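ESCALATION

Customer reports they have been waiting on this structure for their group meeting. Please prioritize. Original submission:
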Amino acid sequence: MPWLIANPVSGDWKIIERFPFLVGGGNEESPYDFLVPGPAGQLCHLDKTRGGLKLRFAESFQAAEAELNGGRTGMETVLKDGEGHALVSGTRLLFFAFLENPQEWVAQNIPFSLYLPGSSGQAEGPYSAAEVARKLGQSGRADATIWLAGGASFRGSHLAALFHSVESAPAQAAAPAPLPGDGDFHCPHCGELFADRDVLAVAVHEELRGDDLLRDQMLRFKPEKFDGFSRPLDAYGYPCPDLACPHCHQKLPPEFLKREPFVLRWGDGSEREGKSTAIISLVGGQRAGKSYFLAVQADRLPSVLAEKTSLRWENHDPEGNMNLENYKDRILGARSPEEAAIEKTVIGGITYREVHKGGREIPMPVPFHYRVCRDGNRYPLTCTFYDNAGEHFTPTEPVEKNPGSLHVARAEAIMFLFDPLQSPKFVRVMSDLKVPDPQLNQPMPDLQEVILAEMKTRIRRVKNPGPSGKLEVPLAFIVGKYDAWGEMIKEGERGVDTEILREGRLCLETLAKNSHLAKEAVKHYAPAIIRNVEALASKVMFFPVSTFGHHAVQTANGKGFAPDPRKIKPVLIEAPFLWILSELRPDLLATC
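Update from on-call: job pushed to the front of the queue and completed.
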């Protein structure tokens, strides 16, 4: 059974999930696991021991200032299992309990019911913290005894002053996390399910800075009061437009809970439930160019949709998309390849974030949210893109250790970015043809077949692939760096056709021709890849793509390979997404 620590004055609480567990006071920059008002620095730390919880005060602490369960205590003591324990240290109160179901206990007991000694010596109550403050103030007592339900008691000369602070500042209690797996909404950050009733609001007033999970960020709380526009109000009465996941406390994208159901009629006359959100997972080997692909795609799609369709591409979450937008601006606004170079995506890199999951901090890929709209269509499509480090899909990174790749099991579409410059046979032929791409001189180990197989295994662990054994979602197999392998096409043979949109519609015939060209190239030089791809999904399209439109340049500053920003002219980088869009929402993008 787990232990719980709580502050009876503020109502803050936390389940102790790891040891040693630190308790301290101070400002929002304090690194301790549980903060209580009072002097900065560590108060005590907790370790699991036989039959209880070992509590050891910090060396700077004066043990004579503390009372445990109404009596004096030394620098080290054991809180026994099966009991509630009350600690008073100067102006700090703490309650510890060993509980079979702490979530249920919190729901029944917090805010705490407090009891004061009456005129006859018997306990009177229950009172709230604010009521205790008023009664202690009215009595003028310098010291006090306060009981909690269950018998734990606090005694100390500072209690009156401590509870009096309840009246001088609003209290905003941290919200308990719901049980995992309950609800209809998947958090885009931690992947846990939650119900709309459990969503948290993000406080606005600066006095409410300091969240129990995110430390220096604004407090997340369970909304109780709302303004006339149905916006939650924080303890100071400020409207709070931002919402957060009840599990990891990360901010949710705008309008995350607004999912109005609708029905789509398809070309064959059938009707299906329409999708207003879609996860699109980008997978590929290390150094395949996934981050460059996403950044240049984010730049190219708004122009293509505006010029050739009636659709509009929107940055749906400017704050959450900041890293990708910075990548885009850096690549396209650079004055040299050195300035345009971006770091390889690694677990823990700039496109990853430490997210609270399962009682620990885990690096998870940052979701990037964009929206496709059309005037007159009331159901836009919000797309969530993930940029995974290649090593996240290798057997050496088990999913139990790094679950950040499991979004592919929930994806409505998958993009697999294949790098021919990592395939030995491709490299051999391009070298013989003297293709002037410096990446040919630094070949990478080809793990792409392993990554594809591992992706398939992970999806099947959490998702039923259906009667055929294949995924029923579109899989766009992108054969990248066409600027390099396109030179393998013999003179007189047809190259790619870049005119894929005609009168606002996606031309399937042109896509099919391009797909055949890309598939045949991979089939000739890496046939096992084709076999594995077609065994994975029932609907596959192959896409020849060049993110840069020219050969990469080896940088002079040792950052590897990058585009020449003056020459960037992508080839068909928009095609995979447009095909996925036509598959998911033909009402937004029709085909011809």
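Sent to customer with the following note: The first helix runs from residue 102 to 109.
Escalation resolved.
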